[in-house]
Every structure is written in C-alpha cells, then in structure tokens.
Amino acid sequence: MKIFVAFCLLFTLQLSTAFASNSAWKNPDYNFSNIDTLKLSKIIIEVPSVRRLEPDVAIANRVKYALKKELQDRHINLYIKNVVVTNKFREEDFSPLEENTSNTAISPSKNKTRTLAQIRAENAPLVTVKVHNLGIATVHHKAWKEHYTYNRRVTRKVSYIDYRGHKRYRDEIVTIPERRTKHHPAYDTTTAYAELSFFVRDPKTDNEVIFTIHDSRSREFETDTTGMLNRICNLFAKKVSR
Predict the structure, then answer these.
(1) Rounded Cα gap, residues 42 and 238, in angstroms
(2) pTM score, whole prediction
C-alpha cells in the first residue's frame, strides 16, 4: 500500500511540472479575417537564455513544418520560399522547404510564369519568428548522504522481585536510537523548453507590425520539444486567424 501511495505522489509531481505562458497583441484596426496567406520572411535563432540548454538540431526546418501545418489546418497558406535564417548560436543545418509549383499563372507586368502561391504572397503579411529557446536542459545531481536517527526497538530481560520475595524475569521492549546514513546515488533530470515570438507585419503599410505573440513553455522529465512547438504554432495560427 505504501509503495502504491508513493507511486501516485511521484506521478502527480511529474504531471505538475509543466509551465506555459503567453502574451499577444494585435492591431484592432486590421481585418485578420481576410488573411488567407502569410509569408514567412525570417527565422532568428537566439542564443539560449536557459542554462545548460542543448538546442535542438534543424530548428529552422522544424519551425517551418510545424507552422505550415497548423496554419493549413486553419485554411491559411504559408509561403516559405527564400526565408532568411539567422542562427546566433551555431550554424544551422537545414534543407529548404519549397512550395508546390504545380499551379502557375502568367504575370502580365513581368511577362513570366509565376506560381499562384507567389501571386498570393506578393502583398501577404510577413511573419518573423524568433526562437529564444528550443531544446533540452540536463541538470546533474551529485551523489549525497542523508544522516538520520532510527529508533530500534529491542526486547530485553528485566529482573524483578515478586510478592513472595522471589527474583523473577520478564520481557520489556525498549527503544534504542541509532545514527544511520542513507546513500543517494547521482542522477540527471531533464527539462524540455520551447520559447518563441512571432511578429506579423503588413507590407502595405511600410511593414508596420500588426500582430505579435510571445509563448514560453517547459516540461520536466521530458526529452522531446515537438509537442510544445506544435502547441505554440497552433496558438499562433488560432489567434492570427481571428
């Protein structure tokens, strides 16, 4: 029974170590309901602010795929050609994610074939993504000793004189305090972090910012940031489409 209770307490503790916080702003004068295309212009990968964080690999590609999928679920196309990627932490290893070019149209002004996605993206709002933290932090805990007092109960023989004057013996339980040491082995704990900011600008008004959102999440005992990244992109898609 004690083992079961201890397991339940540990399980509850692990469930309670998730954190999520976000803040958003949008221009009240802009009609977001008309957005059917967004153009991803920049991805900026910042130096992690979380200590001991090991950033994920191919961050730019992961952000592109996650953002594109969540926007498509809201019927918004994400144009992702010629995205400028700036990695302030390390050289980014990614392959370009290209648009489908099967549907084309002729541009009368430039007299050349362009994709429908390019035509839609001409005046589409521009999206800049800043990746503040995306990776796993591992903390090493050294082995340590715990000193405590244990009360050991023992039974001993105690002599006494009965009513006839005879010497007799009886059992008596006594408590003897003992100094003990418990050895705790070294162990590691991992925490997944995902923190991103999105900036949407309107090219029709000299790239004025019309929408921003900052989303920060973390989860202990986790070694994969995929779920948190997807939820962050989902919240962006949800708010920018309203």
Answers:
(1) 20
(2) 0.74
User: DSSP secondary-structure letter at 206?
Assistant: T
Domains of the chain: 13-141+187-240 (3.40.50), 144-184 (no CATH)
Residues 6+ apart with CB under 8 A from 4: none
Percent of the chain with pLDDT over 90: 66
pLDDT tens-digit readout, 187-236: 999 999 999 999 999 999 999 999 999 999 999 999 999 999 999 999 99
Give the pairing of strands 187-202 and 104-107: unpaired
- Helix (DSSP H) and strand (DSSP E) numbers for the chain: 4, 12
Q: Cα separation of 237 and 242, whole Å?
A: 9
Rounded to 5°, angle at Cα 63 from 104 and 208 = 75
Distance CA 63, CA 87 (A): 13
Let me know: does 61 contact 44? Beta carbons within 8 Å.
Answer: no
Which residue has tokens 């004690």? 2
